[in-house]
Design brief:
With about 375 residues, the protein is mainly α. The protein has helices spanning about 5-15, 20-25, 30, 50-60, 75-80, 90-95, 110-135, 140-150, 150-160, 200-205, 210-215, 235-255, 260-270, 285-295, 340-355; strands at about 305-310, 320-325, 330-335. Helix content is about 45%, strand content about 5%. The longest helix has 24 residues, at about 235-255.
Length: about 375
């Protein structure tokens, strides 16, 4: 057996190898990795601080504030508390609801998807409320009442009363708690079916029936068309931006908190507004329409009777005329002449018919989705208008 010479081995083991110094002096991976061409063999590694400076100079500014800054915004926290939103709804989603499509065209960062979802939910709850509370409203009046509750003009008023402020110009340095929009941004008109009429179809005369309003038009029964110069004005675009925020808030609540929370929010902030649908009526032939209504419902023909009068021979006479169907008085009206008084009485009779309501506490179809709901009793829905 041969004996090992430890002195010879100890010198080789304890002596530092030249490669060890190179390994110890090797720079980190992020510092060492560089883009090299196929012709160059090696390149000098610059400082990491210089890379960051070059990246900041060459990077394009973001069109809207990044979502990381939402947690540090005092305006967002105040708006979240002012609206009594649930803790399930994060500040990042609230900040996204404030970014309109005109400020940031990227659908992953603006409120276009949330606003579309919210508008659908708002229109559904408002429409079922109107149909169940006033079941005899004509279709044109029903659309106008829907606009009065859920139109852009009404939603922008709600957003302003919430204390929402808009930024002078959108950008990544703006506070995330401000509404991000600009007048020269991309403005698109979304429709329910994605149908837009051509120029020839818009100019061609045709009879707009119920199918046109329900299928081919927007949610408020109007023809889908390109925005006019008035609708492209700064004031109108700003109202659209504020209205989209309210719709996006409802869509965010539905996404994070569920259907019941979204319905409660719509009831508290939108349906709680007082609107008088009687001012929306405009009759062209009230006496003829009243006669056709009585014939359709099987009532006796309407008869106008003079109730009282004063100052017949003076400059300002006043006549009070009542409309009767048999022994039932349908309505009355006053005017400076018998014909005007008769027309006003006919209008009052028609409004009394169309504005029939079973009461304020009416059940709507969405109430059946609640747990332990009572059996559904279908509400009365009238045939519709006469003319």
């Amino acid at each position: 057996m041969k004996r090992l010479r430890l002195a010879r081995w100890s010198g080789q083991l304890l002596q530092a190898r030249p490669a060890a110094a190179a390994v110890a002096a090797r720079q980190p991976f992020l510092h060492a990795v560089r883009c090299q061409s196929s012709s160059s063999a090696a390149a000098a590694v610059p400082d990491f601080a210089d890379e960051v400076a070059v990246e900041q100079e060459t990077r394009r500014p973001l069109p809207s504030p990044p979502h990381e800054r939402a947690a540090d915004s005092a305006k967002l926290a105040a708006l979240h508390a002012r609206l009594s939103l649930s803790k399930k709804l994060p500040l990042q989603t609230l900040a996204r609801a404030l970014i309109t499509q005109s400020a940031d065209p990227n659908a992953n960062f603006n409120n276009s998807n949330l606003a579309f979802l919210g508008s659908t939910i708002i229109n559904y709850h408002v429409l079922e409320y109107l149909v169940c509370k006033w079941p005899r409203l004509p279709m044109a009046i029903l659309y106008e009442a829907l606009r009065a509750y859920a139109g852009q003009e009404s939603l922008q008023q709600i957003a302003r009363r919430w204390g929402v402020e808009s930024a002078a110009a959108p950008g990544e340095e703006v506070d995330p708690g401000l509404l991000q929009w600009k007048a020269d941004g991309e403005q698109t008109v979304s429709t329910r079916w994605g149908y837009v009429r051509s120029e020839a179809q818009r100019n061609a005369p045709y009879r707009r029936g119920l199918s046109s309003r329900v299928v081919l038009d927007d949610d408020f029964g109007e023809m889908v068309k390109q925005p006019s110069q008035e609708e492209q004005g700064t004031r109108h675009l700003q109202d659209v931006a504020f209205g989209s925020f309210v719709q996006a808030i409802v869509g965010s609540i539905y996404t994070h908190c569920g259907r019941e929370a979204a319905k409660s929010f719509v009831t508290s902030h939108i349906l709680s507004r007082q609107i008088d649908p009687s001012i929306l009526f405009e009759f062209k032939l009230p006496t003829r329409e009243l006669a056709m209504l009585c014939a359709r419902e099987g009532f006796e023909p309407p008869l106008a009777r003079l109730e009282s009068e004063t100052g017949r021979l003076s400059r300002t006479p006043v006549y009070v005329v009542g409309i009767y169907s048999g022994k039932e008085k349908l309505g009355e009206g006053a005017g400076p002449s018998l014909d005007i008084a008769r027309r006003k009485a006919s209008m009052a009779s028609l409004k009394a018919w169309y504005l029939y309501s079973p009461g304020n506490k009416v059940r709507v179809p969405s109430d059946m989705m609640e747990e332990g709901a009572k059996p559904w009793k279908a509400p009365h829905v009238d045939i519709g208008e006469i003319i």
